[in-house]
């Protein structure tokens, strides 16, 4: 048996749902199409790994979260939704509109054999960082549920991607990775931020990023977008701790 997770990321919704962004892509339209496709997969959980909004202004950001809520309510997806913030998000309104004011870190059960932990790596700029409190929280969760497998959800990329997005890094990612490697029950870390799909492994843990639901970034040395289509990641969490995954593009 397995537990099916759909990971969407980097929606970058504008307050104006008619507004387009890079390469003329309208993020509202592409997110609507992605959610329609996700519904056909019948996931057991949907994870949104940050950057729901593209707006710098907090009031406009609130409108973008309300637009997401409307799309979600009309998507016919019945699975629970776990949302974490990205560097573009506004914590207060994201927390109240999409997170039921639960705050972060946030943990959910993914069937009887897995725990999912949503973390906050947002700082005051585009870079990422994880707090000492959240690292202690993870230790406590693994110690509380030592027989279960654990999946971590972050926004910033914990491993260098080799492209221009490494200019927007996670400052204490080495500390985070060391923590993950010491906790063998942590089997997967998923993230967004880099607007591209990737998969690497460190010991028993797989690190996976998802494409954006709107425009994609090229993994080049200089800023560039790629011609890849919007998409999302499907993750199968097996009862024995194995992880299988694939990308779906629309």
TrEMBL record:
<keyword id="KW-0378">Hydrolase</keyword>
<protein>
    <submittedName>
        <fullName>Icc protein</fullName>
    </submittedName>
</protein>
<dbReference type="InterPro" id="IPR004843">
    <property type="entry name" value="Calcineurin-like_PHP"/>
</dbReference>
<dbReference type="Pfam" id="PF00149">
    <property type="entry name" value="Metallophos"/>
</dbReference>
<dbReference type="InterPro" id="IPR050884">
    <property type="entry name" value="CNP_phosphodiesterase-III"/>
</dbReference>
<keyword id="KW-0479">Metal-binding</keyword>
<feature type="domain" description="Calcineurin-like phosphoesterase">
    <location>
        <begin position="3"/>
        <end position="196"/>
    </location>
</feature>
<dbReference type="GO" id="GO:0016787">
    <property type="term" value="F:hydrolase activity"/>
</dbReference>
<dbReference type="InterPro" id="IPR029052">
    <property type="entry name" value="Metallo-depent_PP-like"/>
</dbReference>
<dbReference type="GO" id="GO:0046872">
    <property type="term" value="F:metal ion binding"/>
</dbReference>
<keyword id="KW-0408">Iron</keyword>
<comment type="similarity">
    <text>Belongs to the cyclic nucleotide phosphodiesterase class-III family.</text>
</comment>
